[in-house]
Amino acid sequence: MPKRFSPATVDSTALRNFKTISDSEMVDAILDERTKDDPCPGFSTFIGTTAKRCLRGANSERLAENGLVPNVYLAIRWWCLLFIPIFPLGAYAVSDYKSLKRPFSDPHSRAFPVAMDWRQVRLQGAIGIAILAIPLLIGLWVSPL
User: Fold this and answer.
1) DSSP single-letter state for residue 66
2) CA nearest to 64, candidates 34, 96, 93, 89
3) CA terminus-to-terminus distance, the chain
């Protein structure tokens, strides 16, 4: 007999598409206490700012009151080696802080996970491969055999 999952269980564990989340839900998720901590510390960074949303009205004011810019964008979190994207760790809805007192120790943004944008991953991955491949090809071309 196949396993059956209730629709509520499946929906609650699935990550939502960035485009389908309402502005108020997005602001609630960004201001949630769990988004204060970095979801992937270490050798990782956010790359890309596709699907940028400029929030207005009460949603914009709520972000501004918490020191955040009233823009939310979709970014891919990558594990990087020398700032070159190597492996995608997930997609996040991100809002940046307006100002930083200590730029190298303060968190730069607040984010929560959303469904992966594979189009953006392919584009950024291709750029990363090109950054790695071009010096190798030039080295092979120039070096004597």
Assistant:
1) T
2) 96
3) 63
